[in-house]
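Forum > Structural Biology > Help requests

Title: Can anyone predict the 3D structure of AA9 family lytic polysaccharide monooxygenase?

Hi all, first post here. I have the sequence for AA9 family lytic polysaccharide monooxygenase but no way to get a structure on my laptop. I'd be grateful if someone could post the structure tokens.
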Amino acid sequence: MKTTSILLATLVAAPTALAHTVWTTFYVDGVSQGDGVAMRMRKDPAKASFPLEDLSSNDMACNVDGETGVSRVQSVSDGATLSFEIRSWPNDPTKERLDRGHKGPCAVYLKKVDSAVEDQGTSTIPIHLHIRYGDGWFKLFDNGYDASSDQWCSDRVIDNNGLLSVVLPKGLQGGYYLARPELLALHAANANDPQFYTGCAQIFVESTGNLVPEETVSIPGYVKAGEPSVSFDIYNTDNSEYTMPGPKVATLTSGAGTASEAQTQQNEGLRPAGCMDENANWCGVEVPSYSDEAGCWASGENCWKQLDTCYDTAPPTGSKGCEIWQRKCQSINDACEARNFNGPPNKGKDLTPKAETVDVGLIMQTSGGGVDNSAPKTSAAAAAKSSTPAASKPKSSAAAATSPAAAPKPSSAVPKPSSAAPAVPSYGWYEEGADAAETPKHTTITVPASEAAPAPTAAPSCPEGWHCVTKYATEVVTEIVYVTVDPESYGRKRSGLQHRRHGHSF
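Reply #1:
Sure, ran it for you. Structure tokens for AA9 family lytic polysaccharide monooxygenase below:
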């Protein structure tokens, strides 16, 4: 039989790569813990959604930059439902979650640790010493291809609004864990390019149980390049023949465990006392009270310095919390200018938005691709059962910026007098009528690859007696638009504001 190959080209006005993804947020029993809270992810917003391709790299444990923990650890009740969220645009959940072409399995791993903040997730012992490194990981869940629906786990996560939900085993040994969601895209695996997407949530399991895994594995090391699970051809092979990467789902047994002993009291990563505003793992605390002009300006300076830290530490999920804090600093600045030296305004008011509660949707079964629709849906009642150790966590607005990068930081966090700076719309959970600070108007606009792309040209009919194979190639065009304020007029405005910020008499 003759075989021919027909190549079809499609022009797409889109970025040069299909939309990738990043694990940004997790929910406990349907309650959001806040964008980036207790979550390790790649710090560079421009590369946060990039896949991992070196299977021997330490980045396989908790992603690039994942060997360094964040300051927060989220408490989780025994047997709770954990839901991990993916986004192709880290600061905007309204965009697509992952390009549909990125088909493949997913899994969730746990590692019992002495400290969820300090543990690197992997060891630094060199591979050539032939010592197991990064040991202690065990698979809690995995899910691959479902022949009955012709769907991969990635398809179901996309259809479930980007949420991958698993239920923690009841009676798991209490204490600190790293929880590692994983998605493997196989669209280029047949070309030796498997693409892993992972990250780590830092959690504390509130449990008096003693269940531990019978065996653990090393990450990296649990999967190697060239293995069938990472080189599978999803286009020319029966997908039902796919075997999952890594170990089998762990068997849990009663025992003391081979890692740290059970911890019964969380003493690290708690929400700081006096926290009034959050942005991921940053917290703002109240400024000193004042009753004279010097104290007013000093408290304002304290507020702006905290804002500097907020913007400097903002993860790829954005800086919505920083924008809230900036409004607070502006209100102090306005009070000083009005010679109202009794403050700060709204002293002690918690500015943190109420935690979002969602219906987590489908809770998938391990392997085989089945979906358990009998699992209870999350209701609003779950909000009353949040496992937050202190106040509730914020959730970034769905109306986030259109750039995958974090919101821009004001060039020097200089306060703006209300008489010169235009106000932005007031947030419902902030002081009504408060003037907002102005931020530099600089945006980058791009379009996800799968958005508004034309359909491929129809393949010509196959001649009789031939076996035809249709191949598609994509040619892409990238368009980036910048909108920037007039630098001359903006510079004059900020120059005048600098005097207002530091002056004490007029």
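The chain has five helices and 23 strands. The first strand starts at residue 2 and ends at 13.
Shout if anything looks off.
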